[in-house]
Write a structure and sequence with these properties.
Blueprint: H1 14-22, H2 27-38, H3 59-72, H4 76-85, H5 87-93, H6 105-116, H7 122-133, E1 142-151, H8 159-177, H9 179-187, H10 207-230, H11 238-254, E2 255-257, E3 263-265, E4 283-286, E5 292-303, E6 310-317, H12 325-331, E7 341-343, H13 351-359, E8 363-365, E9 383-385, E10 390-392, E11 398-400, E12 410-413, H14 416-419, H15 425-428, E13 435-438, H16 442-452, H17 455-464, H18 467-478, H19 489-511
Parallel strand pairs: 1-7, 7-8
Antiparallel strand pairs: 1-5, 2-3, 4-5, 5-6, 9-10, 10-11, 12-13
Helix pairs in contact: 1-5, 2-5, 3-4, 3-19, 4-5, 7-19, 8-9, 8-10, 8-11, 10-11
Length: 517
């Protein structure tokens, strides 16, 4: 049952007794005086039953605890210790000095309730509403987008530990459904899976012996998959079916069957590879050729003004590209707050990203990706006439565009009689004639190149786009979003949203005459 906070000041409340110690310009005072404008009990009314059950801890109180916890980077246990012992926390939460705090699992259940009822972005949305009241969102027709790595909470497992953990998970799922069948499954396997993180005895430095052992591990996993698949009724259980599907994926991503049906280690790394049985959504990612990471990619969109505010965040597997995240960031915002144009780097300037945003009537100001130089004329140096459906080369010769193929691409084939005598042929092609393929988004790319030829537009992009990088730095380093606290993408996204709320409370706190978050 929903319980609301008692606003009556008590004799032993920390706020009136310790306000001088905490300071008028502190974040604790900001929460104490304006916390109800950030999170209120009414915001969580549909998360609790009305009139039945035990009274809850006021949800606005737990929401403020979450903000303080993310701000100071504390675990659940340490956060509840701070509720009990830290005077600043007691002032911020409106608690009496002798308040004993709550059990740490209270926060676990509260976060689960937020996810269950779709309230994981509530604090971020409320900060934006408050910023609008304070006039901090005026004139925000543009937003800036960028991303940063978010490391996963689970350890990345190598192939042996990954497959062994997958088998152990399948055995545990079968055991929970049918103890006798689980015992038979475990007894019928070559290896013991009581401690899946322990590797079988092997001379791992010897390549032939290592690869032979890897094949044995994969064969044992296949044995487990066949046994469960052939057993009557086991796959009808959802947990067993999910563990069976996961193990099949783990074996398939790292092994190939040879001509004799023996699984052999796959050469190379397949894209979208599962890294951990504990968090199956983590992926390999890279921010650059040299900077690699495992986990997720945190994308954020922010207003483009003197005091930028984060308007939306999303978390995707690290292997995902940046460009496809932009439409989701826009869709998650209310219609009235959606930008007319976004600014980004080259990752957001490709054709598919521009096309998706054009469908939402959102413009893109971002550099157009360019292929590496080849010493010959690039496609951008050819003039496209979409109305006449022709392509003109740097020498002034014209070729007609072919009808679109299944991917919407069109090709201009310059005739041999045109290319062979051309004085620019050596600068254009290494073959006898030049063929140029035009994507279905070429009109958007052409318009983007023209826009950036304007010096004022290019200078606007160069000067203002880095604003979002400072906010991402605060998210990642000041408020702990560089590494996920939890397993799973949705929980990581919840963490990112509450950290973004703290970023927004910096300019809000300044506008209200208090310290930064």
């Amino acid at each position: 049952m929903l319980s609301t906070a008692d606003r009556q000041v008590g004799m032993f409340d920390a706020a009136p007794l310790c306000q001088g110690l905490v300071g008028e310009d502190s974040f604790y005072t900001l929460l104490a005086e304006h916390g109800d404008r950030i999170v209120a009990d009414a915001d969580f009314a549909d998360c609790y039953s009305q009139g039945t059950g035990r009274p809850s801890i006021p949800p606005s109180l737990l929401a403020k605890v979450l903000l303080l916890q993310y701000r100071e980077g504390l675990s659940d246990e340490r956060a509840m210790e701070a509720v009990r012992l830290h005077l600043g926390w007691k002032v911020a939460l409106g608690l009496p000095i002798d308040h004993g705090g709550f059990h740490p699992t209270t926060l676990v259940k509260f976060r689960a309730r937020l996810l269950l009822h779709g309230k994981e972005r509530l604090a971020l949305e409320r900060t934006l509403e408050l910023a609008t009241e304070l006039g901090l969102m005026k004139g925000t027709v543009e937003q800036i987008v960028d991303s940063t790595p978010m490391l996963g909470a689970a350890a990345t497992q190598d192939t042996v530990r990954l497959v062994r953990a997958g088998v152990a998970k399948l055995i545990a799922a079968v055991m929970a459904t049918d103890g006798e069948a689980g015992g038979e499954l475990s007894a019928g396997l070559e290896f013991d899976y009581a401690k899946p993180n322990e590797k079988p005895d092997c001379e791992w430095r010897s390549k032939p012996k290592r690869e032979a052992m890897l094949s044995r591990v994969a064969e044992d996993a296949e044995r487990a998959l066949r046994a469960v698949g052939e057993a009557e009724g086991l796959l009808a259980d959802e947990t067993v079916a999910e563990a069976h599907r996961l193990l099949r994926e783990l074996v398939g991503q790292d092994f190939d069957l040879d001509d004799d049906g023996v699984p052999r280690l796959h050469r190379g790394t397949r894209s979208g590879r599962v890294l951990s049985v504990h968090d199956t959504e983590m992926r390999h990612g890279r921010k650059s050729e040299s900077q690699r990471f495992d986990g997720y990619k945190l994308s954020a969109m922010a207003t483009n003004n003197a005091q930028p505010l984060i308007t939306s965040v999303s978390v995707a597997p690290a292997s995902e590209q940046d460009g496809p995240q932009a439409p989701g960031l826009i869709d998650s915002q209310p219609e009235a707050r959606r930008p007319e144009r976004i600014l980004g780097d080259t990752a957001y300037g490709n054709g598919p990203a521009r096309a998706e945003l054009a469908e939402r009537e959102v413009g893109v100001l971002a550099p157009v990706p360019t292929p590496p130089p080849t010493g010959r004329f690039a496609k951008a140096e050819f003039e496209i006439d979409h109305e006449a459906e022709t392509l003109t080369c740097p020498a002034g010769k014209t070729a007609r565009l072919s009808p679109p193929d299944r991917k919407g691409q069109r090709t201009a084939h310059f005739r041999l009689s045109v290319c062979r005598p051309c004085p620019l042929r050596a600068q254009c092609t290494s073959t006898e004639q030049r063929n140029v393929t035009i994507s279905s988004h070429e009109d958007l790319l052409q318009a983007a190149r023209l826009a950036l030829e304007d010096e004022a537009t290019a200078e606007h992009l160069r000067r203002t786009r880095p604003r979002v990088e400072r906010l991402l730095g605060l998210l990642a380093h000041r408020y702990g979003a560089r590494k996920s606290r939890y397993l799973g993408r949705r929980k990581a996204e919840m963490q990112a949203a509450w950290a973004a709320a703290l970023v927004n409370l910096n300019p809000i706190g300044a506008a209200l005459g208090h310290g930064t978050a």
